[in-house]
Design goal:
Pfam families: FdhD-NarQ
Shape: flat
Main location: cytoplasm
CATH class of one domain: Alpha Beta
CATH topology of one domain: Cytidine Deaminase, domain 2
Helix content: 25-40%
Strand order of the largest sheet: 10-9-11-12-13-14
CATH architecture of one domain: 3-Layer(aba) Sandwich
Largest sheet: 6 strands, mixed
Mean pLDDT: 88
Strand content: 25-35%
Subcellular location: Cytoplasm
Keywords: Cytoplasm, Molybdenum cofactor biosynthesis
Radius of gyration: 20 Å
InterPro entries: Cytidine_deaminase-like, FdhD
Number of helices: 7
Structural class: alpha+beta
Low-confidence stretches: 112-123
Length: 276
């Protein structure tokens, strides 16, 4: 099952009535979202292992390295390929990606991640924001948040979530123009991976910084997602769920428009100015 975006399993479906009595028990095949590890290796050094939905792995690696501040352009990566030695029963697992950087780029052990690995790793929120601001490759333009546009984008993202419709358990990220048209939409079991895939695509297409685009997420807005959006140059981030406190503080510190709970005709504006 290696490398599959979805897998089928027999599952028992159970339904109860209003009184808690069983009304239906049947077994049938069900699709679930693929989740496999992707090890990103630069030279002989593993710099990250993330649980992801297989697909668009090259974009994911480019987006990860860019949003973490390790590279500044697509040209900084000379080679990205699956390791032929990562096999199970003689078959390539496609779970180990070898990256070769231009000689001027060196990733040290002290730079393995810019973003927080857990919510309790002991790094002060203020310090994290200041570190990120120092690494920003460009400042964000001030773009008022268009309420009518915000009201339409989550539904446009949802309509293109093919894996979500099939499995019900996967996140999506989408880059949209200000006229509401989509540039790229990617899905992944990890919301940060979905964002990295979008950023990686834009990087490979020469579309960064994304000053004229809007990043829309099917998830909540965390510090990590705001950081990635800021590094890629998105002036606006829209999430369909809540925003964390550090995400709000980071958005305000970078001048990003941050929207949460974007559902139909209502949303919360946590940061930025509203277009009236």
């Amino acid at each position: 099952m290696a490398g599959r975006a979805t897998s089928n399993f027999p599952v028992t479906r159970v339904r109860l009535d209003d009184d808690g009595n069983l009304t239906q028990v049947d077994t049938r095949a069900d699709s679930v979202a693929g989740e496999e590890p992707l090890e990103i290796r630069v030279g002989d050094q593993t710099i990250a292992t993330t649980m992801r939905t297989p697909g668009n792995d090259i974009e994911l690696a480019h987006g990860f390295l860019y949003s973490e501040g390790h590279i500044s352009s697509a040209e900084d990566i000379t080679t990205a390929r699956y390791c032929a030695g990562a096999t199970v029963d003689g078959l390539n697992t496609y779970n180990l990606l070898d990256i070769q950087l231009a000689k001027k780029n060196v990733i040290g052990l002290q730079d393995l991640r810019l973003s927080l690995t857990t919510s309790a790793c002991g790094v002060c929120g203020t310090s994290s924001i200041e570190e990120m601001k120092l690494r920003l490759p460009h400042s964000l333009p001030e773009v008022p948040v268009d309420p009518q546009l915000v009201a339409t984008l989550p539904e446009k993202l949802r309509k293109e979530q093919k894996l979500f419709r099939k499995t019900g358990g996967i996140h999506a990220a989408g880059a949209f123009r200000r006229d509401g048209t989509s540039v790229v939409i990617r899905e992944d079991i990890g919301r940060h991976n979905a964002a990295d895939k979008v950023i990686g695509h834009l990087l490979l297409e020469g579309m960064l910084p994304a000053h004229d685009l809007i990043l829309v997420m099917s998830s909540r807005a965390s510090f990590e997602l705001v950081q990635k959006a800021a590094m890629a140059g998105f002036p606006t981030l829209i999430a369909v769920s809540a925003a964390s406190s550090l995400a709000v503080e980071t958005a305000r510190a970078t001048g990003m428009g941050l929207v949460g709970f974007a559902r139909g005709d209502r949303f919360n504006l946590y940061s930025g100015e509203l277009q009236r």
